[in-house]
Amino acid sequence: TDPLGRAQLLDFLKKEFSAENLSFWEACEELRYGEQSRIAEIVDSIYQQFLAPGATRWVNIDSKTMERTLEGIKTPHRYVMDDAQMHIYMLMKKDSYPRFLKSELYRNLLAEAVIPPETKKRVFPFMRKQRHSSPSP
């Protein structure tokens, strides 16, 4: 949800030659939450950019997911890319994202982060900060 963090992740993925994965995921989000009147247009755009043979930003999804997706786009709807999107999400979660968290790019992002100071006065004094207790035996 952090735009700066997402931009940094995209830069990292470009260096890793896998930026199309995040772009595909974002396009699927646009499909899911975008205008109803544009669904067929967005589905076609996603297919042409990421899934069609010879697509310029082709994403690597397994054959069963591809079959289900190709069957689904015959009657486009808001959730037709869900399986393919989840496949790409899991690839990023298990592979690209952990590498990003270990990267110099991410360490620099953390070093430049502004952490708001904790205030002593609380709006509601009855709400106390949770204490971390040691685990019981």
Task: Please describe what this structure looks like.
Keywords: Signal transduction inhibitor. This is RGS11 protein. One of its GO terms (molecular function) is GTPase activator activity. InterPro entries: RGS (IPR016137), RGS6/7/9/11 (IPR047016), RGS_sf (IPR036305), RGS_subdomain_2 (IPR044926). It comes from Circaetus pectoralis (black-chested snake-eagle). With 137 residues, this protein is an all-alpha fold. It has one domain (3-112): Regulator of G-protein Signalling 4, domain 2. It is 58% helix and 0% strand. The protein has six helices and no strands. The protein has helices at 3-15, 19-33, 39-51, 63-72, 82-101, 104-111. The longest helix has 20 residues, at 82-101. The chain is elongated. The two termini are 38 Å apart. The mean pLDDT is 88.
Write the layout of secondary structure elements.
Layout: H1 3-15, H2 19-33, H3 39-51, H4 63-72, H5 82-101, H6 104-111
Helix pairs in contact: 1-2, 2-3, 2-5, 4-5
Organism: Circaetus pectoralis (black-chested snake-eagle)
GO molecular function: GTPase activator activity
Pfam families: RGS
